[in-house]
Amino acid sequence: MSSSATTEVTGQEHVWSVSEHLDDILGSVRPLEPIELQLLDAQGCVLVEDVTVPVSLPPFDNSSMDGYAVRVADIAGASEEFPAVLTVIGDVAAGQGEQPTVGAGQAARIMTGAPLPPGAEAVVPVEWTDGGLGEGPVSGMRAHSAAPDGASGEVRVHRPAEARAHVRARGSDVQAGDRALTAGTVLGAPQIGLLAAIGRGTVKVRPRPRVVVMSTGSELIQPGEELAKGQIFDSNSFALTAAAREAGAIAYRVGAVADDAETLRSTIEDQLIRADLIVTTGGVSVGAYDVVKEALSSVGDEDEDGSGIEFRKLAMQPGKPQGFGSIGPDHTPLLALPGNPVSSYVSFELFVRPAVRALMGLPDVHRATARAVLSADKTLTSPAGKRQFLRGQYDADAGSVRPVGGAGSHLVAALAHADALIVVPEDTTSVEPGADVEVVLLG
Predict the structure, then answer these.
(1) Residue 159 near residue 92, CB atoms below 8 Å
(2) Which residues, listed in sequence order, are joined to residue 174 by a DSSP beta bridge?
């Protein structure tokens, strides 16, 4: 527990700083154990070891064009008026085992990606030739099935070429023994393509964390259903499940749980089997129906097995009430977030997203930040002693940020138009237009 961060003490109650709370979370979350996965199952996972190239790419000299494999001397000085006339000795197609040997005065019709045949020194594109038709330049080859005689006869070449023209050299992409990927790389489509290209069928990674998200509140109903009096649609579980997936997790959304402590306890216990991290929203304040606090406080400050959930008040706005700890036999981390939509989302960005990235084993778990000039019509105010996070739209070209919506923690519409959080420090109570501010980039 950090003692260097700024805190407030009111009576016997400790008010935690944002930094303290985050440090405690990251100090207790450990990266998941590595496993060997098939390539497509490893998408989005973090590589835990360097991968070395076992075979050069490309593994052989090959053509970068559809055309003719030739000897350079045979086409020196060629032009449309005085073309070089060569004997076509056969086709060289991609995947073909045996290739014909190109001798003096000869050419082999070759396809893109096919190995450069013995004796050939360069490739002339088919557009530089008559395609074996005895006329002017052509725009392409006739299909082999429609004109098999194109692999024989003569071809007229209308332009010279230098040695190695239109030839992809063996190892020009990567050489055997090169490092293809380094440990810590997140495997996306290009990385998986490279692993496949060098012959790797499996790879050792840290798996994507499984995150279970649940909302609490008897007033919550599923979107698409009919609203009754006093009900609202459950948006938090959808927003945070999507946010967990964006962070790199495999996220599961649980339908809203009613305000009943025993129901919530049993629901959480049922979800432990598929969770590396559990996130709840709502029920963490001081109301009579704050069931998360009621349900999980019974775990005690700390069970015999070392698990337990602690509920805290943080010096931040929005998101003052927070809960954090571990639960169950595997000490599964649980983060209990406030229920107001903006509070829950800001809390996710500040605390849950870093925890997800830490479980993945990423060295940098934080969102990128930037300095920007505040573009506002009036002075922004902030409560003393609290770090405030305001929604904003960031203009990278102008180096400015503009607030969107007010400070209310229920203003979910403004959140949908924000791509940054404007940070107002604890010791600042007002920020003038044109001031330099820190922004957390959400994109």
Answers:
(1) no
(2) 57
